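Good morning,

Attaching, inline, the backbone tokens for the sequence recovery test we're adding to the shared suite. The designed sequence is right after.
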């Protein structure tokens, strides 16, 4: 919208129909009185001509909207000091009412209020229903029936691996880089064409101005960049040592694990990331929880929790 180009296509005659006889399509600027019966123009009833039938006013100098003669109501040009119809002075005259150009008439508002109310009602009902069925909770007492744990140590090996990245994201130690062009993004490019619409503006002096508003048309063009494949030496997970059990004293695997501080050399192994999952059991239900929460409760302890009102399922975050 910021790039809109606005161009005036000139001034054209508004039209009017005579109130006194049945003459139609009189010219707003050059026919101030009916060519047939001499009746004065009623500026309130001016209208835009049909598309393609407008008559240009060459060299029109716009001097302002017409004003009604305070005495006889005849529309006068903005410059006139006295009414040319009745001679009364134009002091205190009022500007004529303009016509709003109907470029693209807004879509008729056929929506009835009850339809809007119905739609809102259905949405509210769906929201309420969802809350009632799935979100609503109530308090309940449950007993802790057990503590479960799983501990896992990743085992990593140092070796070559092949990776691919955009040219500007390839790591510095990459070797054997091979790149080819690939579409990374798109950019908007002007096609040189414009999309234009024409608006008509009532100048309220018997003419209207035709204004052309144009915006450039864009198309998407691919942005090609280098996509590279290369090899790097990295620690990579190849296996893991897992232990699991019940009770409150979890242990890490004591199997033949490589040391955690192995130096990086081709084929070397080391311990990687350690992960732990702690679970509280409540009969058939269970919750994965943090270490402090897991240790807070003992087996057999009664715990006050929130449960889903619809399904009695424990809300684990309420522990
Ligand atoms: Zn007439
Ligand atoms: Zn007058």
């Amino acid at each position: 919208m910021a790039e809109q180009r606005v161009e005036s296509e000139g001034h054209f005659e508004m039209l009017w129909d005579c109130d006194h006889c049945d003459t139609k399509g009189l010219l707003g600027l050059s026919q101030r009185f009916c060519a047939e019966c001499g009746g004065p123009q009623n500026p309130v009833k001016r209208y835009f001509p049909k598309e393609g039938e407008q008559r240009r006013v060459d060299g029109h100098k716009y001097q302002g909207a017409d004003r009604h003669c305070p005495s006889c109501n005849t529309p006068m040009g903005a410059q006139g000091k006295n009414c040319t119809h009745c001679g009364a002075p134009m002091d205190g005259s009022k500007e004529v009412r303009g016509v709003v150009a109907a470029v693209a008439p807004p879509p008729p508002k056929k929506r009835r209020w009850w339809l809007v109310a119905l739609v809102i009602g259905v949405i509210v009902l769906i929201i309420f229903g969802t809350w009632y069925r799935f979100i609503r909770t109530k308090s309940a007492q449950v007993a802790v029936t057990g503590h479960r744990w799983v501990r896992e140590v990743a085992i990593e090996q140092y070796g070559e691996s092949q990776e691919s990245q955009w040219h500007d994201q390839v790591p510095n130690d990459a070797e054997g880089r091979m790149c080819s062009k690939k579409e990374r993004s798109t950019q908007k490019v002007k096609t040189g064409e414009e999309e234009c619409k024409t608006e008509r503006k009532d100048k309220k002096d018997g003419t209207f101005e035709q204004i052309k508003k144009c915006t450039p048309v864009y198309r998407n063009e691919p942005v090609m960049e280098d996509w590279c494949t290369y090899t790097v030496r990295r620690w990579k997970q190849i296996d893991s040592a897992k232990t699991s059990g019940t009770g409150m004293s979890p242990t890490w695997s004591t199997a033949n694990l490589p040391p955690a501080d192995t130096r990086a050399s081709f084929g070397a192994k080391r311990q990687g990331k350690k992960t732990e999952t702690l679970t509280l059991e409540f009969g058939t239900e269970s919750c994965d929880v943090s270490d402090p929460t897991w240790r807070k409760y003992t087996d057999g302890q009664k715990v006050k929790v929130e449960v889903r009102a619809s399904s009695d399922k424990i809300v684990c975050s309420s522990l």
